[in-house]
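#onboarding

Welcome to the new folks! Below is a worked example of what a typical request in this channel looks like: someone posts a single protein sequence, and someone else replies with the predicted structure as tokens. Don't worry about understanding the tokens yet, we'll cover that in week two.

Example request:
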Amino acid sequence: MRLLLVEDDLALQANLQGQLVSAGYSVDVAGDGEEGLFKGREYPYDAAIIDVGLPKLDGISLIKTLRKLDKSYPIIVLTARDHWQDKVSGLDAGADDYLTKPFQSEELLARLNALIRRSAGQASPVIENGPLRLNTSSAQVWVNEQSITLTSYEYKLLEYLALHPEQVKSKTELTEHIYDQDFDLDSNVIEVFVRRLRKKLDPGAEYGFIETLRGQGYKLKVFDNK
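Example response:
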């Protein structure tokens, strides 16, 4: 999943970016509201974390502008502990949740995970699809109750497809959502990851979890969970 982090405190920005990357997210950062608006407008994100007290363009105005531009990805607003009005203003502007500083990284990660799941119509952290099961909180995968070991990017690709079952996703879209803005979108890395996933999830080609639609992309096949 690809995130936008807009925070002008560079030490906090670096700390949060490191924690989010360690948790498996791809993170683009911005140090002021104008840069945040440019990135939030130009790139596809699965969620954004926006501080209220930003230079050049404050966080509330940034959120309002993104919503006016029909950017519907979940947004968490960061506020100072004693500024309760900022929490209300952030939610009224279009934010989906808020955190007050200082906060624990575990809480931020849990809230992000929940917001991204719910925006995809998935309430539970565990996605079950026939013999395939993913725990989006722990990034664990099972097929027929057997644990499957995936690399970070293999998991990111599978999770994105699992959150959008039966939806065809192009290689470009998949690349944009699992890598940051500096990645080469012409790379054939998605094809490589799909081949690896097929070998690990379905070595006997019994289920055909990931379908290829020539010239369009890939989709995750939906199975009956009964």
